[in-house]
Fold this protein.
Amino acid sequence: MPTPSLEAPAAAAAGSYGTGVSAAGPDGRSTRYRHVVRYSEADQQGVVFNMWYLGYFDEAMARFLEEGGLSYPELLASGFDVQLVHSDIDWSAPLRWPGEAIVDVTLQRLGRTSFDLRFEVTSAGRAVASGRTVYVVVAGDGSGKQPIPEHLLAALTAPGGGSAPSQPR
């Protein structure tokens, strides 16, 4: 995986049944989110319906931030939030119920007001899907897009083995 690209200098950028595990890869921190596939997430063929992947990605994103030292509730309490503005997913195999989705997430790109996370989904040792989501930082009061605040920047760029524990939600 390539290292994250920087659009602007860093100094200018001011639960559900899952668990997370940290792993420091050669190109930066990777967070692993494990999700037990629920019956309600599968269609009549026992295959996970496509919309659930975005939920898995959001859970993995929250774990990634938490591992970097910033829980999502802390981000919200600080007056900031992130909005998904673009996501793409490529599927290579079905994810089935019963089963487990393992989602590895890494920082792919860091900009002044936005960042991209890369997601790799596996199950039973085989690749299932890969995706990318672009998040934009916004003010919690609804006043619009904001530069990435220092505490979020620190969580996004923290080295592997972050300080936040991973607990089922």
Summary: The domain at 5-13+39-156 is CATH 3.10.129.10 (Thiol Ester Dehydrase; Chain A). The chain has one domain: 5-13+39-156.
